[in-house]
Design brief:
With 674 residues, the chain is an alpha/beta fold. It is 25% helix and 31% strand. The chain has 4 domains: 126 residues, Immunoglobulin-like; 125 residues, Immunoglobulins (Immunoglobulin-like, Sandwich); 167 residues, 3-Layer(aba) Sandwich (Rossmann fold); 174 residues, 3-Layer(aba) Sandwich (Rossmann fold).
């Protein structure tokens, strides 16, 4: 017996769900659907209201009933179960889904969406506490000399009236509006702004004005997903260039400027040559990959001397826990052979520091990996890398999980894979690991479930954090001097996560700081400096010129622990860096400026973000800048009860000897294997 969610209809202010029944015996007199909320385990049972046929039934509900007062909870995810209560058949059948809906705005601050989990089971997701001044659109494009916007024209199936598109000129502090009259699909509008109407050499933000009930509104237009696949550049008849991009808060910005001249276009010819070079390079990479696969299939015999291979972040760095283990290993057991697997970009660093290395994806790299005794890495090796039986693979991983991982990601939206394939590859790779390092019981449970991991867990803490526990005041001073940080100023570290929706197009990522550097400098520049640690994909998009001596960009500094040690406080959002920074018992401030949109549209969290964090949450720029001053006055969090409860849960097992414990584990394996 099966039940499948196959449709959604709107009946006045109610929602009507349609279910397809397969092999469910009649009669249907007592059929009902039970909704089970995943987090609270609350349940609501609603009877089937209409039998369309022996295969199709419907039920009506008020979506507002699927939200209820719950401390700190603003998102509700309901599973559906067909409730059979017939004479000879009783039980629950979980409802599958073949219907995925767009978001349906219920009120100005709440919406619902029908979805499915990784196993294809139906979910009714209710989202509340949405910002009242935001209006989410479906798409935005530059087409036929006009800016075209497509978005919803109804709230809870009631029409939004008097809708107008508005552009506000950032420089001139002025605005202009265009009426929306054209409706496309049911519940959607299409609005256009002629590009000839745009002010010359301007930067403008997009808003929408409308009337909902008796309320006149002006809302900032937002687009939660990326701009990929939409037309974001156009040259007008008057030879003007128009560009659409997204701001840090997912708002839409429209820029108008002079189009490139002929000499400027000719100057871009080398980039086309560069494109051909990239294509050739891509083809060579594919050929090399084929060659690598063949090399791994050849038989190899282990080196007579114990040989340890280290790799960090796929060879992009010589850092993190593998580096901490390597440094201690070379001190205690210099007679073993140690080799780093690196990208070519790390050759200079290795040569300057006397670190033996092998370049990834070379024949020597294949031979070295295949003949080694141990692999120690903080990320996954490619699936085509063959692991011999005599190799012990130690996975240190690279952080305490906040965002969901592996099997726990219910819907994988990355290009080139499906949820099922992604999960299968994750489990296959994880179970090549002979031992996995864990920093606490919380992580151990997640690693077991998210990785499908059945081998040995080494719950010893992360070796990279030994430095945080063992460093002295003199060490901190030396790091500041090395980095050029003034010794007489406080240090504020800003380390946000990378957002999936910052992807613009292949090879290009966007980023804009979500607070004013001018305001930071005005309020704190005399007594403090700001250190930026951004994701490597978007670090090149930063421009901090004009803020020398106040703002420092250390996004590419190889050792983030150095930045923790010199910092008096941390500002982050969804990055797991706060788990490590908490070892120092210094204040942490959370600034999730797009929390609801990030949580709704991207990945979920393991922790309750609104309850379990070791610090306060700033919801807007004003709160953030005020709280920075408060936090800098409280340099030690040892007396903060909530912070120390977090510390005991996540940091307490690490005694500064994690690296030594891993070294001892490896040596025991060597001795055991002779």
């Amino acid at each position: 017996m099966r039940a499948i969610l196959s449709g959604l209809h709107h009946k006045k202010n109610l929602q009507e769900l349609e279910l397809e029944l397969i092999d469910v015996p009649e009669p249907f007199d007592d059929l009902a659907v039970t909704f089970l909320e995943k987090q609270t385990k609350a349940s609501i049972t609603i009877p089937i209201s209409k039998v369309v046929s022996a295969q199709v039934v419907r039920l009506r509900l008020n979506a507002s009933d699927l939200q209820f007062p719950a401390e700190g909870q603003s998102e509700f995810s309901w599973e559906l179960y067909l409730n059979l209560q017939q004479q000879n058949t009783r039980g629950l059948i979980q409802v599958e889904s073949e219907y995925l809906s767009d978001r349906h705005q219920l009120t100005l601050t709440s919406y619902y969406q029908l979805n499915s989990d990784a196993n294809g089971m139906a979910l009714f997701n209710m989202h509340t506490e949405q910002a009242e001044d935001e209006f989410a659109i479906n798409a935005i494009n530059l087409q036929d000399d006009a800016l075209q916007v497509i978005g919803p024209s109804r709230i809870n199936n009631q029409p939004i009236t008097n809708q107008r598109l508005v552009l506000k000129n950032v420089q001139a502090d002025s605005s202009a509006e265009w009426p929306i009259t054209h409706m496309t699909l049911h519940g959607l509008f299409t609005g256009t702004i002629p590009l000839s109407d745009l002010a010359a050499d301007s930067t403008q933000q997009l808003f929408i004005r409308s009337t909902v009930g008796n309320q006149d509104l002006e809302q900032r237009v937002v687009l939660a997903k990326s701009l990929a696949g939409q037309v974001t550049q156009a040259i007008t008849v008057g030879h003007r260039l128009v560009i659409i991009d997204k701001r840090f808060d997912n708002g839409i910005r429209v820029q108008e400027m002079a189009a490139p001249t002929l000499p400027q276009r000719l100057a871009n010819v080398p980039s086309k040559v560069g494109g051909a070079t990239k294509l050739l390079s891509m083809l060579m990479d594919k050929a090399n990959l084929f060659y690598m696969r063949r090399l791994f299939k050849r038989g190899h015999r282990a080196f007579d001397q114990p040989t340890l291979i280290f790799e960090s972040f796929g060879g992009r760095q010589v850092s993190d826990s593998p580096y901490a283990i390597y440094q201690l290993f070379t001190q205690l057991y210099p007679g073993f052979t140690f080799i780093w697997s690196i990208d070519r970009s790390q050759k200079k660093f290795c040569k300057e520091n006397g670190i033996p290395y092998v370049i990834r994806r070379t024949s020597k790299w294949v031979r070295t990996l295949e003949k080694a005794s141990f692999w120690i890495s903080n990320a996954r090796f490619p699936s085509w890398v063959k692991k011999p039986n005599y190799v012990t693979y130690i996975q240190t991983w690279h952080g305490t999980p906040l965002k969901k991982l592996g099997l726990d990601i219910e819907n994988v939206s990355m290009p080139g894979t499906t949820t099922t394939k992604y999960h299968a590859n994750f489990v296959r790779e994880a179970n090549r690991w002979d031992a996995l390092v864990s920093p606490n019981d919380y992580s151990t449970r997640i690693f077991r479930s998210a990785f499908g991991f059945n081998n040995q867990i080494l719950k010893v803490g992360y070796p990279r954090n030994d430095e945080l526990i063992n460093s002295t005041r003199e060490d901190v001073t030396a790091i500041k001097q090395q980095l050029g940080i003034p010794l007489d100023k406080k240090v504020v570290l800003y380390a946000p996560t990378y957002r999936d929706n910052q992807f613009a197009e292949k090879g290009k990522y966007t980023f804009e700081l979500p607070f004013s550097l001018d305001e930071f400098r005005t309020r704190y520049g005399k007594d403090a400096v700001l250190v930026l640690r951004m994701h490597y994909l978007i670090s090149n998009a930063l421009d901090i010129s004009g803020y020398e001596g106040v703002v420092f960009d250390f996004s590419n500094h190889p050792n983030i622990s150095d930045l923790y040690l010199i910092s008096d406080m941390l500002i982050t959002d969804y990055s797991s860096v706060f788990f490590d920074f908490a070892y120092l018992k210094r204040p942490i401030l959370f600034y999730p400026y797009d929390y609801h949109m990030y949580k709704d549209e991207l990945r979920g969290f393991y922790l309750d973000y609104e309850k379990d964090l070791p610090g306060e949450i700033a919801h807007n720029e004003t709160q953030l800048l005020d709280m920075i001053g408060d936090k800098l006055k409280t340099p030690d969090m040892s007396d903060n009860q909530k912070f120390m409860a977090f510390y005991q849960r996540f940091c307490s097992i690490d005694d500064g000897l994690s690296s030594l414990k891993i070294v001892n584990y490896v040596v025991q394996q060597i001795e055991k294997n002779g």
